[in-house]
Design goal:
- The chain is mostly helical.
- The protein has one domain.
- The chain is about 80% helix and about 0% strand.
- Helix 1 runs antiparallel to helix 2.
- The protein starts with a helix and ends in a 10-residue tail after the last helix.
């Protein structure tokens, strides 16, 4: 089972990659750095918390996990 610090680190690195991708896509559609930044920030904040809660929930589910025994 992952420790919470590992889950947090995974969530942060995932969000950095997602932020950059979302900023680029938003910029292509809007042509505005300010608008694309705002969209990317809002998406990153909501995505960060969603991912972290999702990982915490799955870390409590034993289904599909192989035992070390």
């Amino acid at each position: 089972m992952d420790r919470k610090i590992r889950l947090l680190t995974k969530a942060v690195t995932w969000q950095v990659a997602g932020f950059l991708t979302m900023m680029l896509i938003s910029f292509i559609f809007t042509g505005s750095v300010a608008a694309s930044g705002a969209i990317a920030i809002a998406g990153s904040i909501s995505g960060f918390f969603s991912y972290f809660v999702h990982e915490l929930a799955w870390s409590k589910i034993a289904w599909g996990v192989k035992s070390n025994k």
